[in-house]
Specification:
This is Tryptophan 2,3-dioxygenase. One of its GO terms (biological process) is L-tryptophan catabolic process to kynurenine. This protein is mostly helical. It folds into two domains: 82 residues; 299 residues, Methane Monooxygenase Hydroxylase, Chain G, domain 1. The protein has 17 helices and no strands. The relative contact order is 0.11. It binds protoporphyrin IX containing FE.
Length: 432
């Protein structure tokens, strides 16, 4: 394990020794067979270690290059099979979800608690990384660092965010070096080490890819917290419990504001040249494949007609199209029935407005990134038209600028999913 982490940090994941990656991918296939065979008898502790190993190994299996050069047919036949899109293994999203507890049917309070722990840890870890880089004591991600001016602004912004989260619950700290064995990562005591050593594995040695992945992780975590609270707010509204719904939306709005501030760090401190320097190596990994974000937008606004094709083309997200049915009520529909004249009703609408405002500002900023960082008319790495795709729905929101609720988007009928393998799974982290 330690060798894997150190090797990946030394050369970048894209340049890992193909033999090491093949070995990990083969191990994943073996492990999967053992873990899910009905006659496997293993103890609880062993099962936890193996389940954890499965998360790490699966991402190597998904990223393995099967183009065939230099591989025996035996190896290729073991490694082949439908592997899904690259964003999730690239960003190690399943590992993050494991720490957030989104796969355990956890309560919204528990998920938010873990989100806050992880956000505090990741912000601090990023700040420390940039401080070491600025001081010249960090060798990880040494290529194409930001300019001195960009670094100063980044340190300032990260210090402010880290101060803002300093009183949030803490994660057990990481050790000074990566644990040498799998079981060193298992259990709550291993969370710090997972976050420090296993979640962030850039493809290259480019400093800014390292920073970019950190923004992705922070966005994943804030999105999970916002989604957890939005789902609860919907349930409370269905039961007419306005006060509770208002509190959930308020908490979601605070996380959405933080998410916006995190994206501003990228926008303000990463140059276009440095972004384009590592973009090729990330391949077709794109956050259009980000399940939590797609789910959040659907639970807030419903399925937008302009996104059906993008959802349909990502096997991990196609199940979300089940929300295209008359019985599903996104938050936008439920808000229509909230009485404006009562104190609790006004609090719900005010919190929903704050949430809507922060998320809308994020979408505007993000669309600006697509215009600024990508060559003109370049398609997105996720296979969409890029900026035009994002323009097609970024203005769809809960409230108009005068604070009135927007009506539903144009309804669309569910597309035919004939022949596609779509599994109905729970709303949260279906891939875990
Ligand atoms: C310079 C940085 C970035 C650029 C140029 C960019 C560009 C794009 C583009 C062109 C798309 C359309 C889908 C496709 O790839 O074909 C997209 C989708 C998306 N991006 Fe980014 N992006 C950037 C950073 C980020 C970051 C750091 C996150 C954080 C997770 C993020 C989250 C998303 C999400 C959630 C979508 C899906 C939008 C939707 O379908 O609702 N992006 N991005």
């Amino acid at each position: 394990m330690a060798q894997y982490v150190l090797a990946t940090r030394a050369v970048g994941r894209h340049y890992l020794d193909p033999e090491l990656r093949d070995r990990m991918a083969e191990l994943y296939v073996d492990l999967r067979d053992v873990l899910y065979a009905s006659d496997t008898v293993i103890g609880r502790r062993e099962r936890r270690v193996l389940r954890f190993a499965e998360l790490v190994l699966q991402s190597e299996w998904k990223l393995a290059d099967l183009s065939g050069a230099g591989r025996s047919l035996d190896v290729l036949s073991v490694l082949s099979g439908p592997r899904g899109k690259r964003y999730q293994p690239y960003a190690n999203v399943r590992l993050l979800n494991q720490i957030l507890g989104t796969r355990h049917r956890s309560s919204d309070a528990s998920i938010e608690h873990h989100c806050r722990q992880v956000l505090r840890f990741l912000l601090r870890s990023w700040l420390e990384y940039e401080r070491r880089s600025a001081a010249g004591t960090e060798s990880w991600g040494w290529q194409r660092p930001p300019s001195a001016g960009e670094m100063d602004e980044r340190l300032e912004r990260l210090s402010a965010l880290s101060r803002e989260t300093a009183a949030w619950p803490a994660t057990p700290p990481a050790h000074d070096s990566p644990p040498a064995r799998w079981d060193g990562y298992v259990g709550t005591a291993g969370h710090g080490d997972i976050l420090e050593y296993l979640v962030n594995l850039p493809q290259t040695q480019h400093h800014e890819e390292n920073a970019f992945l950190r923004v992705i992780h922070l966005t994943e975590v804030t999105t999970s917290g916002i989604l957890a609270r939005t789902l609860s707010a919907r349930t409370w509204l269905e039961q007419g419990r306005l006060r509770e719904a208002g509190r959930c939306l308020q908490r979601a709005a605070r996380l959405a504001q933080l998410q916006l501030d995190i994206m501003r760090v990228l926008r303000r401190t990463m140059s276009v040249e440095n972004f384009l320097g590592f973009r090729k190596e990330t391949g077709d990994a794109s956050a259009v494949q980000m399940t939590s974000s797609q789910a959040l937008n659907i639970h807030l606004l419903g399925v937008h007609p302009n996104k059906v094709e993008a959802l349909e083309s990502v096997p991990e997200n196609a199940f979300l199209l089940f929300h295209l049915n008359d019985r599903f009520q996104p938050l936008r529909s439920l808000l229509q029935d909230v009485p404006q004249g009562t104190e609790d009703g006004a609090a719900v609408l005010s919190a929903a407005r704050d949430l809507d405002e922060a998320l809308y500002a994020w979408r505007r900023l993000h669309l600006g990134l697509a215009h600024r960082y990508l060559p003109k008319e370049a398609p997105g790495s996720g296979g969409t038209s890029g900026a035009p795709y994002l323009s097609g729905f970024y203005q769809d929101r809960l409230f108009d600028p005068s604070g009135c609720l927007f009506p539903h988007p144009v309804p669309v009928s569910a597309p035919s999913l004939d022949g596609q393998h779509v599994r109905a799974r729970s709303v949260f982290s279906p891939l875990n």
